[in-house]
Amino acid sequence: MNDDFAALLELKQTAPDRFEAVPAGEGHLFGGYTLALALRAAAATVADHLRPQSLHAYFLDPGLAGHPLTLDVQRWRDGRSFAVRQVAVGQNGGTPLLLTASFHVGEEGPDWHETLEVPPPGPDELRTDATMLGAIDPVEFRPVSGLRAEKPADQLPRVHPYWARPRQPLPDDPILHACAMAFVSDYMVVSSAQVLEAPASADSLVVTLDHAVWFHRPGTYDDWLLYSAEPASVAAGRGLARGSVHDRSGRLLASFSQEALIRPPRPPR
Hints:
By secondary structure, the protein is mainly beta. It has helices at 5-8, 31-43, 174-185, 189-192; strands at 12-15, 18-21, 51-58, 69-78, 82-91, 94-104, 139-143, 162-166, 205-215, 225-235, 238-246, 252-263. It has 4 helices and 12 strands; from the N terminus they run H-E-E-H-E-E-E-E-E-E-H-H-E-E-E-E.
């Protein structure tokens, strides 16, 4: 896949509030890639002074890289302070993603957030883990827990927390920076929602159901950011994880959550 993040999110407008894109790569379409494309399509239809406030997305059908996507935007609200859009992403007769995004002008007021109790090692103290890249080559990862390839198979750590940044510098475009954060926020969240003492086996069915992101503060998303996710609940065949995104100084830039369907392997007949 191209490591130029801006090029990966290029959209072609084919009609008012309708866009097309051909996601790079082969095989299964990474959900964070679809999130980023949908957010960029939504942002293309709002006023320039508005910034992403939150997004809520449902993954409905499997998506394929290399196959054209249609992105149809519906305008639900256009106010002086807020705008709301819904984006239906279509491909091959299915709907890989249905996203609702809210945009806000940003206002003056108190500025407070929880601080990291124990700051982890910084990215300069860690090594890049090439095994984490897979289909998302434009991103460089440095896991706090160490390189997975150096761990015994039965002692693989959870991926979170990790530092990540795009391999290529991003243009000075706040929308593109928010799309980059949304892209990475989907990486390996499901693994944090699995019961740690009994992780899902290779034969388990694990499918992401929905994903949400809240953008708290503007930030430069092409510098190293710390992504941390923790399991919140596993019940009724579903696992929920909640996460956060901090910059090097410890500022909380965004929060995210994700729920996944987790089915154990069926016993042999």
